[in-house]
Write a structure and sequence with these properties.
heterodimer; A: alpha+beta; Ubiquitin-like (UB roll); 5 strands; B: mainly beta; 4-stranded antiparallel sheet
């Protein structure tokens, strides 16, 4: 199972507490992971990435195994520790004040 | 006993304020959707328990919420607002062409006859409609693709369709207003639109009397006189008595005719309210004194309503969707400020009381009159 951690606002919207577990068909990529997340929680569509282009929203970042993978290709395979469930895939709202 | 429910959208969540018909004791619930910009909430006139809300943030984009129990519980509905066809370009701040980009929903306007039908005014300016209670939205592209669209330009707050009015005697006739394009009228329920800006004069645009390009801030209508509209423009307060064919300035003795809100008394179609703001570069009341101005003659002759409002050191703004009236026997008038106050008058504007005073900046105020 893939583990996903989301910011509080998205957990509230999805009505979940803590991490989300997902079944994702191999090879596990950003695109497939997010497709599975949005399929399980349709209310998240458009909040993390664009409805049509699937481009990441500007103030959202993705992290995996302590690495910022926000700019990695959407169809690149995620690290093995994320695929195995050892490490979570993080969807993060960027820090921005004011 | 009758009562009222006030729906308040703020920069950091929504609040619901309820009172009985006396409107002197208020029950405050919220924040709902804490942390989000709640641009607008509005209930269906057919089913007051059905409320729609626009929720958005720079982080997570646009969300839409629907309540079927008067705001106690909410469920997200479809948030996919896709322009229908080529997006085209409008003018950018520097005068260059700029592609239409969806940013947020500024205003929701439920149908007068069907709780499942709602219009949504969005930025960049366009009109969307749902007929299934928000499960899906489709653009009525005739507004955005109007031939004058390439001349529209965003105001300082963006290029939003912020006002949608439906003629209660003819639901095919609708009005819309866009900053900074102007006012528009549709005779076919939003399919096609015509600019109605004859009589407007905006000295800050190259041609002050151009067909489009005017920064209209708000339009209001009394349901018994749907051909008469009142407008608060960037500068100037105006009225039309022929459904927008010709506007006439009625700023009269207002101390400043810049402002954002305007509304009409529920039972007196020639009694109107506005909150004058000092200027386009100083968005606060003149002399630090918060005053509602009321005209009982449909404009030109105005009187300051000050009782209960701060008359010194007040430097808040009142944004365009932040004034409304209820329809109780003694008409209630409400407005919210960027300082987080919501003021209410239960006597047609004669006296005011802050029913809440420490909310986040208020973006919108709507009231439902409940039986």
């Amino acid at each position: 199972m893939i583990r996903v951690q989301m910011p509080a606002h998205l957990r509230t919207l999805a009505k979940v507490v803590g991490e989300v577990s997902l079944e994702v068909e191999a090879p596990v990529t950003q695109r497939r992971l997010l497709d599975a997340l949005e399929a399980k929680f349709p209310q998240l569509q458009g909040t993390i990435r664009d409805h049509v282009s699937k481009e990441r929203r500007a103030y959202v970042r993705y992290f995996a195994c302590m690495e910022d993978v926000s700019f990695a290709p959407m169809d690149a395979e995620l690290p093995e520790d994320v695929v195995s469930g050892k490490e979570p895939f993080l969807v993060v709202g960027s820090l921005s004040g004011g | 006993m009758s009562g009222v429910r006030v729906l308040v959208g703020t920069r950091k969540g929504a609040f619901i304020l309820e009172a009985d018909g006396k409107r002197d004791k208020w029950d405050v619930k919220g924040p709902f959707f804490a942390g989000f910009n709640m641009y607008h909430l509005k209930g269906s006139p057919v089913d007051p328990n059905r409320i729609y809300a626009s929720q958005c943030s720079d982080w997570f984009g646009q969300l839409m919420q629907r309540s079927d129990d008067g705001g106690k519980t909410w469920e997200p509905v479809d948030n996919k607002f896709l322009y229908d066809g080529p997006t085209g370009k409008h003018l950018w701040y520097d005068g260059t062409p700029h592609p239409w980009e969806f940013k947020r929903v500024w205003h929701v306007e439920p149908s007068l006859s069907d709780p499942d039908t709602v219009y949504a005014g969005v930025e960049d300016a366009a009109l969307f409609k749902t007929t299934d209670g928000g499960k899906s939205w489709v653009e009525l592209a005739g507004l955005r693709t109007h031939p004058t669209g390439e001349k529209w330009c965003p105001g300082a707050g963006g290029m939003g369709l912020h006002t949608i009015l439906i003629d209660p005697t003819n639901h095919n006739r609708m009005y819309g207003a866009i900053s900074a394009a102007g006012a528009f009228r549709s005779e076919d329920a939003g399919v096609s639109w015509k600019p109605i800006n004859n009589g407007l004069s905006s000295l800050h645009i190259p041609n002050p009397t151009a067909e489009v390009g005017h920064c209209v801030h708000r339009i209001a209508m009394h349901p018994s006189k749907p051909n008469t509209l009142f407008m608060q423009k960037h500068w100037d307060v105006l009225r039309t008595d022929d459904a927008g064919e010709k506007w006439t300035e009625v700023s009269g003795n207002l101390p400043t005719d810049f402002g954002f809100v305007i509304d009409v008394h529920a039972h007196e179609p020639e009694t109107i309210f506005t909150v004058p703001i000092k200027s386009d570069s100083e968005h606060f009341p003149l002399d630090g004194a918060l005053r509602v101005y009321r005209s009982k003659s449909g404009g030109n002759e105005w009187e300051a309503m000050t009782k209960g409002l701060p008359q010194e050191n007040c430097y808040v703004n009142v944004l365009r969707d932040a004034m409304c009236v209820d329809s109780l026997e003694d008409c209630g008038v409400y407005f919210g400020t960027t300082g987080g106050q919501v003021y209410a008058s239960a006597d047609g504007g004669e006296s005011w009381k802050a029913i809440v005073h420490d909310l986040p900046a208020v973006l919108s105020v709507e009231v439902q009159s409940l039986k």
